[in-house]
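Exam prep: given the inputs below (a chain plus glutathione), describe the expected output before reading on.
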Amino acid sequence: MLTIWGRATSSNVQKVLWTCEELSLAFERMEAGREHGQVDQDWYAAMNPNRLVPTLRDGELILWESNTIMRYLANRYGGAALYPVEPGPRALVERWMDWQLSILAPAIAPVFWGLIRPPAGGVDPAQLAGHVDRLARTWALVDRELAQHPYVAGDRLSLADIAMGNSVRRWYAFSFERPDLPNLAAWYARLGERPGFRKHLMGPVV
Ligand SMILES: N[C@@H](CCC(=O)N[C@@H](CS)C(=O)NCC(=O)O)C(=O)O
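Solution:
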C-alpha cells in the first residue's frame, strides 16, 4: 500500500492524489503540512529534508517532489497512457511538467497569496493587477497550445494536465475579470469530467 503524507488542500499533494485515481492505486494519506504540522518533526525531515509536502512511501522507496512522484507512479504502475514511453511524446509531457514548475507556479503564486492569504495590512491593488496580468499572459500561451489539441501534450490526458489542474481550478475560482481564453475554458471543463479531478481538486480554494 502506498503512503502519501500531505494535506489535501496542497496543490502539489493534489497532483499525486489525482494521479493515483487515474491509475486506480490504493493509498493511505497521512495529514501533514501547515495546520497539521508533522513536517517540523525529525522523523519527517528524515524522509523529506525540505519539510514540505507531499512525500510518498512505496515499500522501501521514499520520494519527494510532486512531479517526480507522478512520473514514478506512472512508470511503476502501468501509466503509459498518462506518460508515454516513446521519447518524443514523453518529452512533450515532461516539457509541460517542467513548465508548470518553472513558469506557471511562480506566475500563480503571488496572485494566490494576494487574494487568498493576503498579508497583514492588505495587498497593493496595482501590484496585484500586475501579477494577474502576468498570469493571464501565461495562460494565453496554454490557450494557444490547446487550440491544436484537447490536452496540453496532445490528444489524451497526461501527467502534464494533472500537474496543471490545481492552477487552472484556482484561476477560475478567483474573483476577478479574466480575459476570454476559450480553449483554456474548454480544457478546464474537460478536466472537470475526470472523477479524480472532482474528488481531489474541487474542494475549497484555501
Ligand atoms: N517542488 C515541491 C514543492 C512542495 C511544496 O512547496 N509544498 C507546499 C504545499 S503546496 C508545502 O509543503 N507547504 C508547507 C506546508 O504545507 O506546511 C513539490 O512539487 O513537491
